[in-house]
């Protein structure tokens, strides 16, 4: 992680649009209710999920490359730690990713280092709801 906790507020203020990698159709899962919470507090987001769904009124894309550029700058990730290499590969191939936010419990030091080397800001093992409540 190359972003300090003290930088989270400025980061969230700068990026009011983002994509949620792994946005679940299941409203009981964090990968659904965290984006819903952020949307309810003024952020705008789209989702990525392998199967198209319409749950929660989110626009869902199948790949990061399909996501409009303004939503691709900040990518909030809900994937298991062992899948972060693939997420970083996809982010680098799609281009335009400035922030990779790995949700609570998700870390992959090797993949994070590759993203950082490519100039991407990386936050790992942090929940957007918790950080929002601390900073706003």
From TrEMBL:
SMART domains: CoA_binding. Transmembrane segments: none annotated. Pfam families: CoA_binding_2. Residues 11-106 form the CoA-binding domain. InterPro entries: CoA-bd, NAD(P)-bd_dom_sf. This is CoA-binding domain-containing protein. It comes from Bdellovibrio bacteriovorus (strain ATCC 15356 / DSM 50701 / NCIMB 9529 / HD100).
């Amino acid at each position: 992680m190359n972003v300090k906790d003290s930088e989270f507020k400025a980061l969230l203020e700068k990026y009011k649009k983002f994509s949620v990698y792994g946005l679940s159709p299941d409203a009981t899962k964090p990968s659904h209710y965290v984006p819903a919470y952020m949307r309810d507090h003024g952020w705008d987001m789209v989702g990525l999920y392998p199967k198209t769904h319409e749950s929660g009124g989110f626009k869902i894309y199948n790949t990061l490359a399909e996501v409009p550029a303004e939503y691709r700058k900040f990518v909030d990730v809900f994937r298991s730690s062992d899948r972060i290499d693939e997420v970083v590969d996809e982010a680098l191939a799609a281009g335009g990713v400035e922030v990779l936010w790995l949700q609570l419990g998700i870390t992959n030091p090797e993949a994070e280092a590759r993203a950082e080397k490519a100039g991407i800001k990386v936050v790992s093992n942090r929940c957007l709801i918790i950080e929002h409540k601390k900073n706003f």
